[in-house]
Amino acid sequence: MEIKLLGGTTKEELEKRIQIVASAGKLSRFPGNVFEVLESTNDYESNLKMIKRIIKMGHKSIIEHDYLIFGLCDVTPIIEQTIIGMRLSSFTIKSRREVDFRTAGFYTPKFRNKNGEEIKNIDEVTEKYKNHVQYLFNTYGDIVDLGISVEDARFVLPYCFKSNIIMGIDCRQLEKMIISYTKGHLSKIQELKEFGEKMYDIVKEYVPYLIPGIESSSEDLSSGFEYLEENYKRPEINILKEPKLISHTPNVDDVILQSYIMYHYQCQKEEAEKILEDLEKKDKDVKQKLMNVILHKDERRELEQASFTFQIPISLSILTHLTRHRMHSLLVPEFLPMWDMKNHVVPKTIKENPKALELFQKAVNKNMEVFEEFKKDVFEEDLIYFYLGCQMLNVMTTMNCRTLQWISKLRCCNKAQWQIRQIAWGMVNEVKEVAPYLGKGLGPTCMTDKFCGEGKESCGLIDKLARD
Predict the structure, then answer these.
(1) Which architecture, in CATH terms, is 2-73+164-226?
(2) What confidence score (pLDDT) does residue 468 get?
(3) Which end of the chain is less crowded, N or C, counting CB atoms within 10 A of the terminal residue's CB?
């Protein structure tokens, strides 16, 4: 793994970044406008001392103005998923839908025994692991050679493959990330700890005001689930067949429409209800008409007044398609304890190709067999790289209607990956049952806006809809 800070590393850039953060700290308590304050904070050492003093007091919002961009080379999806979990970070990831990964390489942990110490027969264990992972990569390549797209072949890739990421993050989130990976329960995963330590080495040189906070933070290796594990036997994992609506704001359509009226007239809820009733007497279609207006406004804050909670079945290969939508509250099961490896999905294109299906299923079964063998003696945190992209899990999320609309526009599109498209339509169909006016405005833009942004790559549905 190689981590580099992309920019902001020269003496001049470093001093300028520190000056901006110091000015943010000084602005609220000193006379003068923002430019006068900036001009007055021109001593690097004084600025650094002031920043440290302010953040020690707990006022960390000032360090959100220091934004850094990193290049992450040869990191696995384990790192990918955990940094995406930092909801305020930004990231661009090499696409497994477009790029052939058979020569990407893979990560090999330094295998430990059940006590977390280096396993005695480490050379033998490592060799067996490498041979097995290479077999999985070879299977991936063989499936691609049979004409299966890399988009579907990736479902057989193990979660140890190496990828590359550009990540942007403000320094408040950066501090939280480093503490989490070096001192929290995630530090038990070797790769994450190494990643956190490399980030900390960069911080020591280029973000010196973070050092005291990181050094003074205490170690906490607890997962937060100890009580559950001690008091209740872990139930069998059953994967849902489709997205399930668990709960939602009561009377979603009316809440949105009434908030629209209250927002415009500054009236109380009771009066908004009466206005809506009076309008409906004049025009039976008023609710749908008003909802259509709200759905197409530039600022659709009314849609943020109602929300839905879903439980969703999804594969590891497709998880990032959901997690990268940051404006929802997503609960993804942690990698440990290990999930049920039998729960997996087979892409349709592989099912329809007998040779590809044989290769795929053989690889999945072999992976479970080797995993069970390793599980007897190997530290659990070192086993997570046996997860395959086809591994299914249940996630839970709560999102407001504006986020739901945005997701449906992108993920209900025929150009979207097939599993996330099924998920998006499943969510939309669930919503239509409880919020029909909102539901009519959800879906791909060709259906909701008579517009397609795919250009020459359009699936052609927009033309069919225009003819109809």
Answers:
(1) 2-Layer Sandwich (3.30)
(2) 66
(3) C
